[in-house]
Automatic annotation (TrEMBL):
Signal peptide range in chain numbering: none
Protein name: PadR family transcriptional regulator
Domain Transcription regulator PadR N-terminal: 16-89
Pfam families registered for this protein in UniProt: PadR
Protein source organism: Paenibacillus albus
InterPro entries in alphabetical order: Tscrpt_reg_PadR_N, WH-like_DNA-bd_sf, WH_DNA-bd_sf
UniProt-listed PANTHER family: TRANSCRIPTIONAL REGULATOR YQJI
Domain of life from the UniProt record: Bacteria
Amino acid sequence: MKVNKELMKGSTVILILSLLSKAEMYGYEMIKEIERKSDGVFSFKEGTLYPILHSLEMELCVESFWAEKGGRKRKYYRITKQGQAMLKEKEQEWSLFSLSVNRVIGEGQA
């Protein structure tokens, strides 16, 4: 089952920041990790991911750097202190949102 793109829009930043809070990653690696961790439910295209990363970089929530690993030079991203603060805020926001949705859709059930 595919998730509506409108639902995904509000979740992309928290997914990216959450990944980067655990490890530095390059773009394609993030795409594959999100897909793997969601059992294929979330599937990002590069055209979706990179504008978000660039926006987070402009907001000083992530920073990029070039590194060579395994003989390949790639642009990696890491979360900053500002990004950690944003992630915490997004996690609280998500918790409130999901709790509230579950309360509404759960009404009337035994």
